[in-house]
Predict the structure.
Amino acid sequence: MRITMVGTGYVGLVTGTCFSNIGNEVTCLDVDPAKIEKLNNGISPIYEPGLDELIDRNHKAGRLHFTTDKTQAYTNAEMIFICVGTPSDEMGHADLKYVLAAASDIGKAIENAPGATGGELEERRGKIIVVKSTVPVGTNEKVRQAIAAETNKPFYMASNPEFLKEGAAINDFNKPDRVVVGVNDEGTGGRMRKLYEPFVRNGHPIFVMDVPSAEMVKYAANAMLATKISFINEIANLCEAYGSNVDEVWRGMTSDARIGNKFLYPGLGYGGSCFPKDTLACVSMGIESETPTPLLKAVHDVNQQQRLNFYDKIVEFFGGEENLSGKKIAMWGLAFKPGTDDVREAPALTIANKLVDAGATVEAHDPVAHETTQIVLGDSIGYHDDLYATLGSADALVICTDWPEFKQPDFGKMRSLMGSPIVFDGRNLYNPQLLQDEGFTYFSVGRTPVNAEEANVAK
Ligand code: UDX
């Protein structure tokens, strides 16, 4: 099939590349010429394991093209996937200007295209315009109207939410748990099924449903996952207050199959481009439709508070924010999660900012997220390629991302480098008993701190 992806962000680029990888003719369109030039030179603008190689292979094979030429990209395509950004304001209201601008350009291209000559019957019937960006329920219809305002020629609409996770995007796309497609007519449902069938040879389902339901699935799924994280973080906070150990509580509760054991790890709360935005968007849809969503508002508030609670733990240990002035704090992990250089809504950045504002020096290491952090924080913190290089004379180490390479460090080396062997672990990477035996003062989430009193006396 001839497919055009509009927007070469995370979803557009991964989806387009994976479609081309199974033999489709894919054109990725972006308004940013620098991005397109990079892609044409085989360089991915985002960090995603395996993506560079896949782009290079399919680009060289002549199946994957990158362009800024809208007319050509829209005119040739049988299917056009809208994957542009939908930035949200603080209230979670999604800004649809990029989606609607693409729709209107697509409408013009359909109107001005020469009459269909030959080709598959279904191709001559009209293009399918697929909305893949996560957009408020009802947007598909707005896109249809924006296209219809430019042309009377036939075209078809579909909604196709994407569930891939950053850091595991290619595998998630190639072997999805499910594919969800919303359509207004059976023919379009059939054409979408045909496109996705090679990806569900694992027997996983393709659900074809009405458009408003498909649009809601993505929000419901992400809001559920976000709820699980805020839930366990709230329980972890109660554990700290009552001297319970959240690891034990986790084991005890998750052995109930109805609860399950996935996505219930306490920590600094969720970040990234999806959960914070999508949870807020649900709240915003609730306000607009006068349908109260107090649960999801609380999920968001708990998440915002969780990183601040962790910062407060550091402040409390040092006896007040004023005492952070002049302290040297090492930070391991900047990305919102391992496997990505994405720092959008990353707890590490909030905590680093607060430490710097309080007058501390922050020396950070992340395996891949220095450049992306520098765009946001500039040189207000130090960046080190080696994780131990952050530790020289440090008054404490703060761990913000659960990168695997942090899980079994050389504790002896850490102790000898640090000014004080104090660790604030926002991701519960270590067994508290082990850190106690290694002579560290250790704070984590939902578990009693170790050696805290001794360290306080020594201060
Ligand atoms: C998420 C969804 O998983 C994906 O289906 C959707 O398409 C986009 O949003 P992603 O943002 O890539 O994907 O990250 P994910 O791996 O889901 O993690 C989100 C955040 O939750 C991270 O900050 C992670 O640290 C945090 N998290 C996850 C927890 O704090 N505890 C957990 O138990 C799981």
